[in-house]
Amino acid sequence: MTNLVEVKVPDIGDSSDVDVIEILVSEGDTIAQDDSLITLETDKATMDVPSSEAGVVKEIKVKVGDKVSQGDLILMVEPVEKSGDSGGASSEGSKQEETESKASDSEKIESKSESTEASDSADSEKSQSSSKSSSGSNSETKSEVIEITVPDIGDASDVDVIEICVSSGDSIEKNDSLIVLETDKATMEVPAEQAGDIIEITLKVGDKVSKGSVIGKMKVSSGSSSSASDSSSSKNEPDQKGSANESSSSSASSSDSQPSEPKRAPVPDYPQQVKKRSEGGVIHASPAVRRFARELGVDLSQVSGTGTKNRIVKEDVQKHVKYELSRPKATAATGSFAMPEMPEIDFSKWGDIETQPLSRIQKISSVNLHRNWITIPHVTQHEEADITELEAFRKQMKDEAAKDGVRLTPLAFIMKALVHTLKAFPRFNSSLANDGENIVLKKYFHIGVAADTPEGLVVPVVRDVDQKSVYEIANELAELSAKARDKKLGADAMQGSTITISSLGGIGGTSFTPIVAWPNVAILGLSKNQMKPVWNGKEFEPRLMLPMSLSYDHRVIDGADAARFSVHLSQTLADIRRVLL
């Protein structure tokens, strides 16, 4: 009857009821001692649990989603016997006794000698077991708790702690980063001087430290376990060289006992766009992966994880860097910039003040305008349109329109001319896709018109301008303006625009730089028209000129196209009959 050995959860610090997020082996796998079996995750870190036994996995007792603590059963292992051992002469009773002895030793002893596992007779088996127990007690590794302190950091003192790289419960290797410090001139990482398990971190971000300052406490293995391991290896070497008759069989056994690496989902050549994490959202990554990402300057919040529960592995970071380096930066997707906080100023120390709250519209607009200004590369093209004939025609039709209840304004004509130009330059009637690599061309023409109200700026939208007459556009403009002043505009009335007009003609000014209203790629600013002397080839004559300021998203629109667009619009306004062509 085959004897199975239990493999249990070892000491994992103060953690209990820890989530199992990944099973790294399968039944039938051949594993070596210290191979990773499962991955656990606490609120602060992830850790792989190594095997205390070598052999064949016969039965796995846990599954993803289970919660485990120290001493819980993980799986059952059938120890692998060496090819030269028969064990046929062993009695059933002595085998049972040895199995129980092994199970007991496996909970207390971290390292076992692999030189003796079976024998040809019952007497030699007991002798081997006794030798094994003695060897195990000699090589038993004890642990101790030590303080982690800041090493020599040169002449610097009272240095700011800007990042804590590990948490309580983390298992770290020698030279893993513990904290990151920042002086006036540079940043530096403080590495671990030895491997172990973090018990406590006593620092926090913002603290100041110097050489010798306590970082925290960690549990390390006392004694020279590595020396013992080396010694054990050197003792085994003569035996391995001397057993030439077992070379072929042990080679085959070694080949069969290679642990099978856990399979992970393939990392895509083009990582999917990362969904925006909620504030304080957990990023699942080991300390080693975090350090690797930090060395490359990668923001892990922008990396897609392919491990269980979206855990980020090293390959994810490498793919992210490769993709970003090969990606055309001129069309990179929109993002946000972390701006430094403005200092709080007490203005009352210079005189009397009065604090007034922003209106709801102003609060919303301020956020949107700030986002648009810092994320869209703006360029503004200035042009003038000769609207002398257009204005004469408008005044001629003004009284006739009034009889039909229409207040005929220049803006209605400008909107019709703008649609005519948009059809000639469809790229201005588009949006940049979120992937930063495509544009969405729109077949409809909805024009947003910025309206000034006592509560702030609002932008109602006139839909399907290409399908409406000048009279219909003028009527709709009047209705939307009245609703805006009376605070009766619905949210749907301010959405869906393909381009925006911001008109300051009734106030004054010669030109300005309007901010593109995302997701539009252009906005047309209109200033106050004025009479100017224009040279006609023979003499100067007075002409009514309309200043226009076209701001556009330079990622989508080139400067030459913007100039052509402005000239085309100017020519259309100079002779509105072009709209009929």
Beta-strand content bin: 15-25%
Largest sheet: 7 strands, mixed
Write down the overall mean pLDDT.
78
Q: What oligomeric state best describes the polypeptide chains here?
A: single chain
CATH third-level topology of the largest domain: Chloramphenicol Acetyltransferase
CATH superfamily of the largest domain: Chloramphenicol acetyltransferase-like domain
Radius of gyration: 38 Å
How many individual domains? 4
Q: What is the CATH architecture annotation of the largest domain?
A: 2-Layer Sandwich
Helix content: 25-40%
* C-alpha end-to-end distance: 96 Å
The helix tally amounts to 11
- For the secondary structure, the number of strands is 27
Question: What top-tier CATH class of the largest domain fits best?
Answer: Alpha Beta
| Main structural class | alpha+beta
Shape: elongated
Uncertain segments of ≥5 residues (pLDDT<50)?
Answer: 83-139, 224-270, 275-280, 329-336
Brief write-up:
With 581 residues, this protein is of the alpha+beta class. The protein folds into four domains: 5-140, OB fold (Dihydrolipoamide Acetyltransferase, E2P) (Beta Barrel); 143-221, OB fold (Dihydrolipoamide Acetyltransferase, E2P), CATH 2.40.50.100; 287-327, E3-binding domain (Dihydrolipoamide Transferase, Irregular), CATH 4.10.320.10; 360-580, Chloramphenicol acetyltransferase-like domain (Chloramphenicol Acetyltransferase).
